[in-house]
Amino acid sequence: FGQVAASAIIMSTGLIVSFMPDTWWGQIIAVIITLIWILGIINATNFIDGIDGLATGFTIIAAIFFLIITLHLEQFYVALMAAILVGSCLGFLLFNFKPAKIYLGDGGSTFLGFMLASFALYGEWSFRGPVIALGIPVLILGVLIFDMIYITISRIRNGHVHNFHEWLDYTGKDHFHHRLMNLGFKEEHAVIFIYIIAIILGLSALIVEHARVSYPVVVLMVQAILIFVIISILMLMGRKLSKD
Fold this sequence. Notes:
The chain is an all-alpha fold.
């Protein structure tokens, strides 16, 4: 209920995705997409908070890229909030990386997810069309989005979850970081590997935002597909090893 209430407060200020048609049905779909986006990113951030330093470090990386792009686009309010989040998380990460002395807990991780989801909605990410504007935050938060979609499909298909409440409460060992550890990664190495993927996706978002090519959507899609194919292969390999 708290997550839905927080999402409703954000949307009541008029912060709703803007790529849908300006019709009554378009606005209804926009509200639904916005709610799914906020709830999805909140819980995706909570989901990756399974090993020391992962959620905090990922938030730092994502917020840095949000900061860079919003500064370039002169959206200084979002840039300021992103800078504050980076600074606070950097101080926390010193004590949260393995071996962790302090932990985010559900309250901390969901707050970070709420902030990241809000940045994506507040920012005007491109002046070159809605597809690019949508693609930039999706790339920056790509690790979260991919992990959430993958484990959701897997859990529904395997009969582990049957409704939204079960989806929230289910705690499995099927996340990306678990798959990496099944492949032989140490916990801290899995965290660093995911950091690297997040940085690559963030750099891809910067390239797309600065691109001056005829078909930037093609560049965006190729970059995203290559990264997510690699992640998919690693996830499937980790799943096979966990079964063995």
